[in-house]
Q: What sequence folds into this?
């Protein structure tokens, strides 16, 4: 198994531009999580999906952030418009259905976003 | 809301010394997980603790879950340079399905 796949691995953009981050979970996993990691705030859960349905988006910082999961093998996190304070590493993680989300989460390699 | 505090923030040790990181929750947890993140890498699952007072070992690593299920610890015996990284605890409350991560403890091991 290739593990959780994220793209791009690095993104540099200018303030005000739209940014789209992509994630492909491990096949068969029905939970998908988006995290943001910064030195100041650590690892924060932004949103998670179960069977492609958003369950908890209370961590999404503001309306500039949106996430979708159109099918079981693909999810996007979009920031529009981006701001310098959005600079962070964004991780996607997935979890298997056996035992539900109580099981381990498998993290992707992350997308390092820099907003100038 | 639920908070998970982790100390210390940083720990520098000489190779061969022991290391411990502690995790405390403001609320009772249904279970707790531990992850390791190597520099430049992503968090990797180490273990999950579920039962009150549970102790689990993985080679030189010992994980404990407190009797009240509000605290946990990770102890590494005789650290090696391969232990370098940040160790996170992540707690989950009752019926909630999301993990709340501690701030992590960054471990540096000097040869």
A:
């Amino acid at each position: 198994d290739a593990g959780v796949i994220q793209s791009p691995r690095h993104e540099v953009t200018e303030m005000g531009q739209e940014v789209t981050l992509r994630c492909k979970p491990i096949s068969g996993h029905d939970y998908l999580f988006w995290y943001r990691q910064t030195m100041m705030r650590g690892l924060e859960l932004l949103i998670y999906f179960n069977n492609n349905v958003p369950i908890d988006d209370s961590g999404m910082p503001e309306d500039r952030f949106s996430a979708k999961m159109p099918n079981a093998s693909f999810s996007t996190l979009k920031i529009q418009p981006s701001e310098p304070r959005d600079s962070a590493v964004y991780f996607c993680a997935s979890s298997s259905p056996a035992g539900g989300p109580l099981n381990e989460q498998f993290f992707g390699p992350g997308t390092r976003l820099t907003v100038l | 809301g639920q908070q998970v505090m982790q100390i210390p923030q940083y720990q520098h040790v000489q190779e061969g010394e022991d290391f411990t990181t502690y995790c405390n929750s403001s609320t009772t947890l249904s279970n707790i997980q531990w992850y390791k993140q190597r520099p430049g890498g992503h968090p990797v699952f180490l273990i999950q603790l579920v039962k009150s007072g549970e102790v689990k070992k993985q080679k030189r690593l010992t994980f404990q879950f407190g009797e009240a299920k509000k605290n946990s610890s990770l102890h590494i015996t005789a650290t090696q340079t391969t232990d370098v990284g940040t160790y996170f605890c992540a707690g989950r409350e009752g019926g909630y399905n999301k993990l709340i991560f501690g701030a992590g403890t960054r471990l540096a091991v000097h040869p």
About this structure: The first strand of chain A starts at residue 5 and ends at 7. The mean pLDDT of chain A is 92.
